[in-house]
Structure prediction request, 513 residues.
Amino acid sequence: MKNNLQIFLLLTVASLLIFSSCGPKKTTIHYADLKNPKREFRGAWLHTIGQGQYRNMTSAQMQQYFVDVLDKFQEVGINAVIFQVRPQADAFYKSDLEPWSRYLTGVQGKAPDSGFDPLTFLVNECHKRNMELHAWMNPYRVTSAEGQALAPSHIYNRYPERFVKYGTQTYFDPGIPENREFICQVVKDIIARYDVDAIHMDDYFYPYPIAGKSFPDDASFARYAPEQGFANNQRSDWRRNNVNVLIQEIKQTIMRNKPWVRFGISPFGIYRNKKSDATGSDTNGLQNYDDLYADIKLWVEKDWIDYNIPQVYWEIGHKAADYNTLVEWWAKNNFYKHLYIGQDVKRTMDAQTPSGNTQLADKFIKARSYPQVDGNCFWSGYVLLDNYKGVYGELVNNYHRYPALIPAYLHLHDKAPKDIKKIREEYTETNHMLVWDRNGNPADPVKAQYYVVYRFAKGEAKNTGNARNIVAITRDTRVVLPYEGGKNKYEYVVTSVDRFHNESKGKSKKVTL
Prediction:
């Protein structure tokens, strides 16, 4: 890498040391157009745990399946795919730390045919479509049911004392420091070898409580809590601290190695209920802080994560956890950071308004009405692809009618890349093209990674803040222009966008089509 990038890395790592002392700062840009925002995170989750289709596919079939999925996502306006690469301490990628996933080939430790690496393929195909790939990993889960055989190479077989069984499932014990170190090694391995855009974790930290059963961490609590300053009556605080330390160490691992890679969490939709905390939401349900020992509010405030996607999966009007109540609460408690709303596609399309419509429109309007909310993420991507009750068409024709850029991560880097060079027209035997040159090495994250192409009719104001004017978002340095008879005059503007989604002012070219 160039010297300026090395300096950038050092400065960014140094900034991590002062994150907790920084006051609130607006880090995203929100546009007032509620119907067609130019900046909006539009994500979709693709889970692999419990999914049986992959193990029945050859590598060639899987590649074609992924191509079809991503083509559909691109059509429906998705700009970030959150793919579960580590469902239960196994991998949908080649790893020397953990075995191949049972959900990939049917047998944990069995490699796919032909040396196929799904993560490499997905990263490349997402980036071809200018979509992000977020590597989704579960930190603690090892098995999800009785009788699941572990591969001989699995870390459990080397250090069984570092694991516990709770109900029918096996977990890393979050209280053991070596387990945190190992999880950070897994994160470092992924970001070192794959060009992922983010590391992502969902709501599974300490497991969801089983009625009448306490989590079996007596041994680790007795071993580590006293030396860490926790008394016998502070086990809940100790557990929260275990997760806090993991989150902070993962963020530090990312910052030391690839600070342009983001770290995001998708917590359960309720932080705390008012009956537990006067500052909590007016809800009545399971709580991140008290039941899962996940202090997501602290992580956002301290900049230990880069984005937050609470799973606000309930309906508008739900008695225990109303969608509107929760969106408002998260918006008021996001500390000026990136906040996206996790949307349950099926529940949204099943729920009805008093007029008999689905709640999709009302949920979009609610989320977009808060300047603190910068997008949505859809659970699950498979339901979205199935066009459940017409949701696919609703997004294409209405809520994602125009493309959107992911909001810029200004807390990581806030300077726009250099403009393109030498914008010009070129002709081939079949095409009239607008062409330009890169300005900087794309391996440098602060240089242009992709380009936004706008078109304006003769005499029209050049408003690049309006998504309706975008005709292409591309990683290529050319676009094919339409033929309109040779009489219509337009001005095209091409901007550069870096890895953090900062956009340059752009260069223009007048053309006749």
